[in-house]
Amino acid sequence: MEELDSKKKYKLKHFINHLKNIRGRHTELVSVYIPQGTELIKVIQQLEQEQGTASNIKDKKTRTHVQDSLERLIRHLRLYKATPENGLAAFAGNLSESESKTTIEVFSIEPPQPVRTRVYRCDQTFLLEPLEEQLEHTDVFGLIVLDKRESTIGLLKGSAIITLANLTSGVPGKYKTGGQSAQRFARLREEAAHEFYKRIAAVANKEFLGNKQLKGLLVGGPGPTKHEFVDGDYLNNEIKPKILGIADITYTDEFGLQDLVDKSKEFISQQARTKELEILKKFFETLGKEPGKIVYGETETVKALNNGVVDTLILSEDIEDKLAEKLETLASQFGSSTEIVSTDTQEGMQLKSLGGIGAILRYAIK
Length: 366
Fold this sequence. Notes:
It contains 11 helices and 13 strands. By secondary structure, the chain is an alpha+beta fold. It folds into 3 domains: 6-136, 2-Layer Sandwich (Translation, Eukaryotic Peptide Chain Release Factor Subunit 1, Chain A), CATH 3.30.960.10; 140-263, 2-Layer Sandwich (Nucleotidyltransferase, domain 5), CATH 3.30.420.60; 273-361, CATH 3.30.1330.30. The strands form 3 sheets. It has a 5-stranded mixed sheet with strand order 7-6-5-8-9, with helices on both faces. The protein has a 4-stranded antiparallel sheet with strand order 3-2-1-4, covered by helices on one side. The protein has a 4-stranded mixed sheet with strand order 10-13-11-12, sandwiched between helices. The longest helix has 27 residues, at 182-208. The protein is flat, with a radius of gyration of 26 Å. The two termini are 43 Å apart. The mean pLDDT is 89.
């Protein structure tokens, strides 16, 4: 699965925000999620069955709106030769604000990350949570869960957790067998644990070292084991500084990876916020110290883009979709990077007050 770049993230966020504002008078808005690899004909057949079921809806207008929405969705799906690589999310409903008029519209998007669950729902709002999950965390994080008996190593890519390896140890249980002194037994356990930690680190170093997409490492497990591992001299010196957080969790298998992600959402969100704040801080500091290396507003930024002098284009997520696409296209033509920033921070609001568009230049032009 590829990392969710700023352009895809921006497109998805605008798609979600547009659909969020739509409300049905009754449970008449249809949402359909089609996972990758699903045969479209089977989905179409299901929707045709739902058309028949909808005939039981008592309210005439609601019944008509649901049936018409399903008909439009079926027609829309027939335009596809096959399910797109990442699946499809499709929505249909009556958008008319007038009681006497019906305007059925269809919206669809191939999400930037795979759809994993097949869903059909009718409600007063569109079901958008599966798409919103793809926005929550879009970077790549390494995952290590462990105790003295087991360890699982994985990756978090967007909203997907990928298991890379599961290791079991030869560390004996806490209770010694007959004939061994307590001191000797404790030493054997310590030595076996040390060897196990070395094995875990070897896999982690192999999987994570050189991964340029890796934004951080999360470690979890029950008891003190995780701290022994982190504090010991096991992980590569390039990987160890990437540890963002250590979480207390119960499991050390694949369930443990999920638990680790759930317990680490604050660390993950903070990482995205930190990156955003860094680029905005650089923008405003440069504006204060070297104003000739900064432009803002649509007119000046477009001029700078066309002259090929933009190093980093910065766009507020609140600017209009078509304008953002135009600016990003210009940026890509001249090798400029693009960053999309939220308005959740004071710095983000400052950029919004400047028109939501700014750029750090390769060199001063004023």
